[in-house]
Amino acid sequence: MHHHPSRRRFLGNMLALAGTGAVPFTLNLAAMGNAAAQNASDYKAIVCLFLAGGNDHFNTVLATDSSSWSEYQRIRTTTDSGSIALPGVGATGGVLPIVPNSPQSGRTFALHPSLGPLKELFDAGRLGVLANVGTLIQPTTLAQYKAGAVALPPRLFSHNDQQATWQSSQMESSATSGWGGRMADIMASANGNSTFTCVSNAGNALFLAGRTVRQYQISGSYAVPINRLNDSLFGLPAGSNPLRQIISGEQSDPFQKDHAAVVARAIDAQATLSSAMAAVGSGVPDPTQYVNPNTGVAAVNPLAVQLQTVARLIGGRSTLGVRRQVFYVSLGSFDSHDFQRTNQADLLAKLAHAMAYFDGVMGNLQGADMRRQVTLFTASDFGRTFTSNGDGTDHGWGAHHFIMGGAVKGKDIYGSMPVTGLGHALDVGSGSLLPTTSVDQYGATLASWFGLSATQIADVFPGIVNFSNRDLGFMAS
Q1: I need a surface site. Which of 190, 381, 406, 464 has the fewest CB within 10 A?
Q2: Kind of pairing, strands 324-331 and 61-63?
Q3: What pTM was estimated for this model as a whole?
């Protein structure tokens, strides 16, 4: 799947070879995308929240029935002070029980103590859990994995490659586009200004790289302007400032001309975006400070600030002329080889605080409830091992993730929660989970809600052909 051209490129090449006579017999995905986009009279947005470093899902969503909890405590409790086991249900600072709508063989479940706001969203039906999802090329059994009998994602357990595979279905060295960007390619014609179809508030994101659509990067809570572009410069009044003409004016050299055109577009986009965000104003309040569970100290939550910016852009959708948008935000430092119990508690507190803030803003954005039109999902490099090195965990594979929004069929766990312990049918070593659900299935379910057809989904996720279940059921139609 990594070396063959995409279906769209293949069909494009065939069309070019066959000439115009082949048009009636050739599937034109671009035209189909235009048709789907033109029918998108509503607004929808997908927000990817990437937990960079590989979140330990075993301490995020836990099985608490007696046999599972016994194994959890036996394996994750160590004799030193760095034990990563959490207190049980009802204990001081203990895990938070959740009751999914669909029972799983009499098992019971809970969330990390820092995820109180997410428990409330789960109970309210706006948050779901997807169990044991990860990078897969095709359904794989433990026997096939051990025998090398099927194709496997390249360079498992490598941060860079698994981040790239999660975001693009290709390894880092060959990835050129992400599935968020490929979705945007198809739906961009719904937008009057395609510049703001893909927006990252966490730097350059492979997830948002399209074949034609380019991501717009924004920093912090505002669109970054060119310094001193619109004010006085070297004693000259603002109205006589020549900086814009110098950096984006007419040029004769072709390279300088292209550079000037890029700069001019960037200046115009920044002005448009700033105007749209300013118009939203107090309609998107500043997030409250979160409280570090280890110290009790309140502080600014950078993830909440990123989501505030996303909310402002959604609030300015009419000004920006957009109907379909894909966003990327990120929270780092999840590579918990050491000090996991304290560090993850703080990170998950930030995660829960930011997601609850975003849900609240979407619930009353400019007097309207936008929750059903905006879906946020989490992703990460990989899960982690069930065994502990004393105060941390090592790189794993499958992991549990959250999906949040008004269109999410929440208060449920989708997929099958694996056995708690070691040596079971999904343990590829040290309790690292062999995924039972692929990232392609995860993304295809979101893409279907976003408005893509089955054919378009197959173009965005070429590997989806290997999976019979292409809709995991966690999104309302």
Answers
A1: 406
A2: unpaired
A3: 0.89
